[in-house]
Amino acid sequence: MKTVFVTVGTTSFDELILTIKTPEAVKALKARGFERLVLQVGRGSVLPGPESGLDLTLEAFRFKDSISEDIARADLVISHAGAGSCLEALGARKPLLVVVNNKLMDNHQQELARQLHKESHLLYCTCSSLTDTLRTMDLSVLVPFPPAQTTHFANFLDIALGVQ
Amino acid sequence: MSLMLGLLLCLFCTVCIFLLRLLLVVNSGPNCKPGGKGSVCVLVVAGSGGHTTEILRLMESLSPSYKPRHYVIADTDRMSEEKIRAFESAKENGSIGSKYTVHRIPRSREVLQSWSSSLKSTLNALLYSVPLVFRLQPDVVLCNGPGTCVPLCASALLLGVLGLKRVLIVYVESLCRVETMSLSGKILYPVADYFFVQWSTLRDKYPRSIFLGRLV
Question: Gene3D superfamilies annotated for this entry (chain A) (predicted)?
Fold first, then answer.
């Protein structure tokens, strides 16, 4: 079943949760063949139940020890701009749509999402443009996220510290 | 009056000697090669949330020569200790006899805390950091930006200034920092021995930093 996973991390982002389950957004998702919507709502005040009467399967939870399984099962991840969530989704090589919370001004966490968007690793929108983005987005423009250079760090340090 | 002047002169001389020693210590980094003795004792400053995840990814890449490993976390941090223990027990399966400890110190700065109260709590954290660093005597302090790393690095510098031990400071700015440096980064940039940034935009602004691409 083609699945969308929405995650807000450890914060709350009610506006995103409310927007994604509007009939317009659901219609846009259905048109793209999505049949299952999983919401991780964090500390938000909105925790939708399964009764919501949507046109697709809806699951919602607040927190889990690890969301890696939900990411692995998703065909599209919609995330807040938090660095942890973005990196986890990109690391799992999932198409990622980041929704920026305009109410958080000067949040340095958004710096990373903006930069990754500049480099075409993810799509980027706000709550008000979410439905339009879902309708018109082209996931094929996304560039795969290259793996980190951890060995460069280890090699540099070994030489600098004289480790044999 | 002359006693007063004498005291002031003493104080002035002490401050001058301290600053001179600090300058000498900060500039002696490249000559310090603790790896020569076979193993490198690391003090790892794990912060909250994302900082811990990042620093554990860096630790993952290091060879078994980096031991023992002493992790320091803020006392209000609940998640990090679990992550560290999970990471270390996964590592133990690979190599036998790996050694690590976890220590807690008061947090020096909560997110959004004001300047004046940050200063007070940083001084409080310093009271706990100095004895800890003097007792552990690490070869290297590895940190990536949580507020807790400032008092710990200051303690490490103090060891060097007093001539007890030259402790290297390795700072890796968080991957989240693309355009602007974190407050901890700005404070530690002049004194860190190896200062890594993960975006070229930051490297251009801070020419002494080391840029090897994305590290975590």
Answer: Glycogen Phosphorylase B
Which CATH number do you get for residue A7?
A: 3.40.50.2000
ipTM above 0.85, yes or no: yes
**Number of other CB atoms surrounding residue B16 within 10 Å:** 10
Q: Does the domain formed by B39-211 have CATH 3.30.365.10?
A: no
Interval A138-144 mean pLDDT: 94
End-to-end CA distance of chain B: 60
Higher pLDDT, A142 or A105: A142
pLDDT at B38 over 80: yes
Within 8 A by CB and 6+ apart from B56, the residues are B46, B83, B84, B87
Separation of CA B106 from chain center = 15
Q: Locate A73 and state its tokens.
A: 């099962």
Nearest residue on chain A to B82, judged by CA atoms?
A65
- Tokens representing B198? 């993960």
Residue of A nearest to B42 (CA): A161
Helical spans, DSSP H, in chain B: 2-27, 50-61, 79-94, 115-136, 149-161, 183-188, 200-205
Total domains present in chain A? 1
Distance CA A125, CA A134 (A): 10
Give residue ranges of A with CB < 8 Å to any B CB: 10, 82-84, 87, 108-109, 111-112, 114-115, 146, 148-154, 156-158, 160-164
**Six-digit token pair at B162?**
């007093």
Q: Pick the residue with more confidence: A145 or B91?
A: A145
Quote the crossing angle between the two packed helices A127-136 and A23-31, to the nearest 10°: 20
Nearest in space to B39 (alpha carbons), one of B98, B84, B103: B98
Instruction: Measure the CA–CA gap between A89 and A95, rounded to whole angstroms.
Output: 8
**Is B175 within 8 Å of A87 when comparing Cβ atoms?**
yes
A-chain CB neighbours of B65 within 8 Å are: 158, 163-164
- With beta carbons less than 8 A apart as the criterion, state whether B198 and B173 touch: yes
Residues of the domain holding A148 = 3-161
Q: Is B35 within 8 Å of A87 when comparing Cβ atoms? A: no
Closest-CA distance of chain A to residue B9, Å: 40
pLDDT tens digits for B92-116? 765 555 689 999 988 776 666 677 8
